Amino acid sequence: MDDRSRWRALYVASILSGVLLVGISDANVALPAIARSLHVGPTSLQLISAGYVVAFGLTLVPFGRLGDQGRRHQLIRVGLLLYIASSLACGLAADLRTLIAGRVLLGVAAGILMPQTIGVIQQLFGGADRGRAFGAYGVMTAVATASGPGIGGLLMTVGGADQGWRWIFLMNVPVGVALFAAGARHLPRTQPVMTTITRSFDPIGAVLLGVTVLLVLFPLVLTTGLPGDSAARWSALVPAAVFAVLFLRWERRYLGRGLLPLLDGELLRTRSYRNALLVAASWLAAGPGVGLVMMLYLQLALGLSPFLAALVLLPSSAASAFGARWAARRVLRWGRVITLTGLFTSAAGILVSVLAVNLLAQRPAIAVVTVAQILNGLGSGMVISPNHVLLLSDVPAEKGSLAASIGHLTQRIGNSLGIAATSAAFYAVVYGHAGELTNAGRSTYDSALVAGVVAAGLFFALAVWATVTDLVRTRLYRTPSEPIDRTTKAGART
């Protein structure tokens, strides 16, 4: 492919990833409307949300491996067809079972597609071009992560209070059709042929890993902080640990037979990759967790509609795009310095928001929070975009889809853990003081917001630690005048 064709393929892959990431958060805005329309309770709503997340997590790694084996183009076509069909099923669902089944299939489609998008970029770009390509990809993912709730709120408003939730799913249909046509025209139809050892699929490993992921995610997605949460859900972590041990033992045995296991030890021994996994997982636990409790606070404490609450947080999306683009152009020289700056910039925006709602009256508080979201989004873009570049900087092109799928799997687990922790802290304070969710005083909601932000702060601290660790490591491997460009030596620093 010529240079122009490569960049067109990059834009198609980046937009596709952005659409999948928006799908994680935009539907959450619609859950109250779904409850009214289908007459379902909190447990059913959790199944609607959890079905997508769990299916997404279960399919990422196996289909990442299949993508690396020469099936990337076919998987993109199959994944988009499933995405269109399942979105249509969700939008037209007349009952709870149909909606849950549609959400599960939508999660499977996302799990098929997501690792292929990064695999395409790994295949088409190398050297410094790969860094710029992943910088552009990071801009799209940063914007998508920040704008999901706003897009959901807008579609809810256009479609109406009771049926607007259907618009969120039905809008995926024309988007999916457009992406299918663009993918057929611009994405590469072939990829380098892998060796025989790389083509081994490891089906038993896929099953063991899938069961482990399912058992880990199960208690997390069912944690809401509501009084009805059962402590018994945490018992799933015991068999999860058992299956994790079985999976690791099987992987060693599989490797001993001269075959390539599902969990690539070379990838996990690559320090840049390992540290970037931790940064991504911990930040996607902290950032979206704060966004969730802030969205709840704006509606419950300040009386804003879902759409107006989304508008207050909307400046974060625009600032995130700017921050991601700015950081992408400088990450190869400054590396983790940009990530660390972004973390503390975002933290400053969050701190200003919390202080404003606790110290100011309603209108000035809303104004300050809206402005503070610029800092929050700017920092978030500076974290997400560089991390995409650094995550895969030392990963060989032939392992791009697998490396990306492991990355997204850790992000989904981190995100689920962060949402569970922050929402549980928020709800626990509200129910502990008021006994119900909607009629508490503002001071109670103030305390609940602080509790949620403190819970997210634990993950923020982990992201800072991982960033500093990687920063110290990279400083040890270069002279003061040498740019931080690790994209030319795949796997060199392990």
Automatic annotation (TrEMBL):
Cited InterPro entries: MFS (IPR011701), MFS_dom (IPR020846), MFS_trans_sf (IPR036259)
Gene3D superfamilies reported for this sequence: Multidrug resistance protein D (1.20.1720.10)
Residue ranges of the TM segments: 7-25, 45-63, 75-94, 100-121, 133-158, 164-183, 204-225, 231-250, 276-298, 304-328, 340-360, 366-392, 413-435, 447-468
Annotated organism of origin: Microbispora hainanensis
Subcellular location per the Swiss-Prot or TrEMBL entry: Cell membrane
Keyword Transmembrane tagged: yes
Sequence ranges assigned to domain Major facilitator superfamily (MFS) profile in this UniProt record: 6-469
UniProt topology in membrane: Multi-pass membrane protein
Top-level lineage group: Bacteria
Descriptive protein name: MFS transporter
Keywords of this entry: Membrane, Transmembrane, Transmembrane helix
Pfam families in UniProt: MFS_1 (PF07690)
